[in-house]
Amino acid sequence: MEQQLKKLMAEAEEALARAEDLDELNGIRVRFLGKNGLLTGVLRGMSKLSAEERPRVGRLANEIREKIEDTLARRAAEIKEKVKTARLEAEKIDVTLPGTPFLTGSKHPLTAIQEEIEDIFLGMGYSIEEGPEIELDYYNFEALNLPKDHPARDMQDSFFVGPEMLLRTHTSPVQVRTMERTVPALPVRVIAPGRVYRRDDDATHSPMFNQVEGFAIDKRVTLGDLKGTLQVFAEKMFGRQTRTRFRPSYFPFTEPSAEMDISCGMCGGKGCRVCSYTGWLEILGCGMIHPRVLEVSGYDPEEVTGFAFGMGVERIAMLKYDINDMRVLFDNDLRFLKQF
Ligand code: DAH
Q1: 312 and 181 share a domain?
Q2: Which CATH number covers residue 188?
Q3: Which residue's C-alpha comes closest to atom 7 of ligand 1?
Q4: 240 CA distance to ligand 1 centroid (A)?
Q5: Among candidate residues 30, 27, 35, 37, the one with its CA nearest the CA of residue 5
Q6: Which of 43, 58, 90 is the last residue in one of the domains?
Q7: In terms of domains, do 133 and 21 share one?
Q8: Contact status, residue 108 vs residue 337, Cβ threshold 8 Å
Q9: pLDDT tens-digit profile of 228-265?
Q10: Is the sign of the CA dihedral 188, 193, 195, 198 positive or negative?
């Protein structure tokens, strides 16, 4: 029996030495010292012992129980300590480390340019209007003096979404929508930024792009007012040294119509690759609002005149930042966007 007890002791010590957590220790306690544990099991055989042996074996059994309990307590303390150290180690913070950098965004170049254009015209007393991107044929074409089957519709290859509805091909319909609302009030000075859609797709054309429309109506608005206004715009946008020129052109909703060029900022007008050696860059279409457009909007063309212009925001961004492929403006590659 003493042999058995000593073997039990050795087994318990070995198990305790190997135990890695408190659950395991508890299992060992139950297995060896529990009510139905191994030690009790051995002691059940005590009755078979002689009277001299019994106290000796009893003492040994007690010693063994105490020893196991001591070891259990020591191992429990060790394991708790180990867990605590591991936790402290895991939670350690080095307050001297640099912080996690916080990425700050920046405005997309198109947004920045659009806001710059808006600011320039807000400063000249214009207000901002918006119109729908899905537009009626009436506002996009007909009210702008572009009747059905008019050849000038070919200049704006369109996405129709219904027989009388399309994705607007320009921001000019906002002219008519605004005038219908303001008539007969004068003066009206409005810019209308927004997305427009055409069936074009190459390095300098995207099926979706942005325009800013502008127009002013009042009694006795002249072509001189148009030129002066756009000269101020060009100087504020591209620098004081910028010169402008107006070339005759054709738009059904203006008469007369013109295209405005600015002197090339790259070569100062001497001629270079950017301006195709002309010294000039085309930036917008403009003209005096056609009497018919005033009339369908409710204004009397005998009383009122106006000028209008429309520019492409992408084109201005490309000129200003020297970008030669429009598509980078829509790729949303951060390596590109971060440069602004
Ligand atoms: N809507 C024209 C286009 O998208 C641009 C334009 C030209 C607008 C002349 C105007 C204008 O207001 O007067 O091609």
Answers
A1: yes
A2: 3.30.930.10
A3: 285
A4: 25
A5: 37
A6: 90
A7: no
A8: yes
A9: 999 999 999 999 999 999 999 999 999 999 999 999 98
A10: positive
106 alpha carbon – ligand 1 mean position (Å): 30
Ligand 1 and 172: CB distance under 6 A:
yes
Residues 150 and 20 in one domain: no
Nearest CA to ligand 1 atom 6: 310
Q: What's the gap in Å between 47 CA and the centre of ligand 1?
A: 114
Q: Are residues 165 and 128 in the same domain?
A: yes
Residue 320 is given by DSSP the state H
Q: How many domains does the chain have?
A: 2
Report the candidate in 109, 130, 123, 273 with the shortest Cα–Cα distance to residue 193: 130
198 in the same domain as 317: yes
| Lookup: tokens for 94 | 């080095």
Nearest CA to ligand 1 atom 10: 309
Check pocket membership of 65 for ligand 1, CB cut-off 6 A.
no
Q: Which two tokens stand for residue 30?
A: 């139950």
Q: pLDDT for 263-305, tens place per residue?
A: 998 898 899 988 899 999 999 999 999 999 999 999 999 999 9
Domain range enclosing 238: 109-337
CA of 251 to the centre of ligand 1 (A): 7
* Candidate from 172, 176, 221, 255 with most ligand 1 atoms within 8 A of CB, to mutate: 172
Cα separation of 215 and 254, whole Å?
11
Domain edge (last residue) among 90, 124, 158: 90
